Amino acid sequence: MTAVERSEPAIDAAERPMLEGWLDYHRETLAMKCAGLTDAQLREASVPPSAFTLLGLVRHMAEVERGWFREVLAGEDVALIYGTDEDPDGEFHLTEADTWAEAEATWRAEIAQAREIAARSGLDDMSVGLSRRHGKPFNLRWIYTHMIEEYARHNGHADLVRERIDGATGA
């Protein structure tokens, strides 16, 4: 696992760079929460009976990135990465075969796709696809704001899980 670099968003940026800066900040915060842990620690469900793990969370965020940017914003017909019809929350149901290397590579690939898709849209552009949950389109501004909220909320969960695993706090 390599060291994670995280930059504070500029305090005087225009709206789009500000939104992108905060989203990247929260993406890297999640990576920092996972840094330095073994695959076994990343698979550790630290708040029983919940199956919530840091590895499952990274896999979940890969699904979220894919869903909002590829499926909703771009209108791509993409399948879930880890979930199935029988197990729609499959990203959280881990086995010993699931690794950080695979999860991080998948998550980073979805982030790269998200950036590419977002770069082709204006903040007020409406999505081509519809959200599964809401059944309606969203503009990129809303998607960025939602993604920042999604990461911020889950990074709070990650704080608690990481502290429970090895006592590390902060970041």
Give the overall form.
globular
The separation of the N and C termini measures: 17 Å
Helicity level: 40-55%
Largest sheet: none
- The helix/strand order is HHHHH
Structural class: mainly alpha
Report the count of strand segments. Answer: 0
Point out poorly predicted stretches. none
- Tell me the CATH architecture: Up-down Bundle
Radius of gyration: 16 Å
What's the CATH H-level homologous superfamily?
dinb family like domain
The residue-averaged pLDDT reads 94
What is the name of the CATH topology? Four Helix Bundle (Hemerythrin (Met), subunit A)
Account of the protein in words:
The chain has helices at 15-34, 39-42, 54-73, 100-119, 140-166. The chain is an all-alpha fold. It is globular.
Q: What keyword list fits this structure?
A:
mainly alpha, Four Helix Bundle (Hemerythrin (Met), subunit A), 5 helices, 53% helix
Concise account of the structure shown:
With 171 residues, the protein is an all-alpha fold.
Helix-strand layout with pairing:
Blueprint: H1 15-34, H2 39-42, H3 54-73, H4 100-119, H5 140-166
Helix pairs in contact: 1-5, 3-4, 3-5
